[in-house]
Write a structure and sequence with these properties.
With about 270 residues, this protein is an alpha/beta fold. It contains nine helices and ten strands. Helices cover about 35% and strands about 15% of the residues. The longest helix has 23 residues. The termini are far apart. This is acid phosphatase.
Length: about 270
């Protein structure tokens, strides 16, 4: 009987150890999005947009629809600050439909939207914005913290840059951030950097495109994001990411080459 119990204990210990090993080797969730029959790919990139149609959001949406039709886009990328001023309050927040579904109505924009979070989104209910319930309301919506989209000729690496920024934790002013799922912060960042490094290193795509909310290098108002310069930039340098989309200044296109660091397009 004692021997039998000992064997059961050893087996249980082995199973628990295996579970710990599996959980510690998490990787970024991946999605496949087919390119066009000729291998080409067209998409739009937008950020800082969710204002219930005001602040020229509706006017920009009209132009996006025209450009989207002309290019016959495959999908849309959002680089964060999806809902102003303070994200969503819950899964049933009318701001979701008033700022998204009812604004981007053009036929050409009825494609998949791949989105990451911005700092304004973290001021609301983050879990609501990440919830699959929103996809039931509008099937175009897909928002996760960090993930990969394989579009054949290109792979897109969506990175949650918000937890890197010290100011949001140590000097948040009057803002309250929803850090559920992020704390402990140091572990979250370490795991994310590891997963991004692994995904980029293993990618065989012709183009590796990194998407996030905060600029690494920028001549805009906010300037460089020093935490990303220190922690994320070395990984991108080693893995030869070609193009990066960020947005905290409203300047969303950044170009990477081996001899040129990341600077704002303006």
């Amino acid at each position: 009987m004692a021997a039998h119990s000992s064997i059961k204990s050893m087996a249980l210990c082995f199973v628990m150890t295996m579970c710990l090993v599996v959980s510690s080797v998490a990787e970024l969730q991946r999605f496949d999005h087919p390119a066009n029959d000729d291998g080409s790919l067209s998409f739009l990139v937008i950020g800082d947009w969710g204002r219930r149609g005001t602040y020229n959001q509706s006017e920009v949406a009209v132009q996006m629809g025209r450009v989207g039709e002309k290019l016959n886009i495959n999908f849309v990328i959002s680089v964060g600050d999806n809902f102003y001023d303070n994200g969503l309050t819950g899964e049933n927040d009318p701001n979701f439909e008033e700022s998204f579904t009812k604004v981007y109505t053009a036929k050409s924009l009825q494609k998949q939207w791949y989105s990451v979070l911005g700092n304004h989104d973290y001021r609301g209910n983050v879990k609501a914005q990440l919830s699959p319930v929103l996809r039931q309301i509008d099937s175009r919506w897909l928002c996760l913290r960090s993930f990969v989209v394989n579009a054949e000729i290109a792979e897109f690496f969506f990175v949650d840059t918000n937890p890197f920024v010290d100011m949001y934790f140590y000097d948040p002013k009057d803002h309250i951030y929803d850090w559920r799922g992020v704390l402990p912060r140091k572990k979250y960042i370490a795991n994310l950097l590891r997963d991004v490094d692994t995904a980029l290193s293993q990618s065989t795509a012709t183009w590796k495109i990194v998407v996030g909310h905060h600029a690494i290098r920028s001549v805009g108002h906010h300037g460089d994001t020093k935490e990303l310069v220190e922690k994320l930039l070395p990984i991108l340098t080693q893995t030869s990411a070609e193009i990066l989309f960020y947005d905290v200044n409203g300047y969303v296109l950044h170009r990477w080459t081996g001899s040129k660091q990341l600077y704002s397009a303006i």
